Request: fold
Amino acid sequence: MATPIEAFRDFGPRLRHNQTLDERDLAKWIAMRTSMNPNTVNLALLELKDAVVYHAHQGTPLKLPGLVRIAPSIDRHGNITLNLRLDHHLKRTVNNINEYTGDIINRANIGITDAAMKALWDAAHADNPLIFK
Reply:
């Protein structure tokens, strides 16, 4: 008996990711849009990382308006981690399927019902039917 997770993995919509943008390419992109020197932008990005670490060690949350709020936290074992909270406007802006130009695998299955997912799965895996609980 297959689970909905297995069916969603095979038939659910998912984004095909491009190659990861590294800091040098990001610096070039920012430099192109701002007429800054790419090396200067790259150094600023490296300083930003160091600033996050430094201020996290001080217990100071950092807010980058329009992007993210970063705050250190600690668990009961003494492990210090960073909590990231994306800006609400950024999340709303990105969550616009009409603006997305990347490739979506199984795009036709966006909004698929459980019954339709079961039909797809069962047709492909007759010996392992999908069970919704």
About this structure: Residues 1-18+102-133 form one domain. The helical segments are 4-11, 23-34, 38-58, 88-94, 114-124. The mean pLDDT is 95.
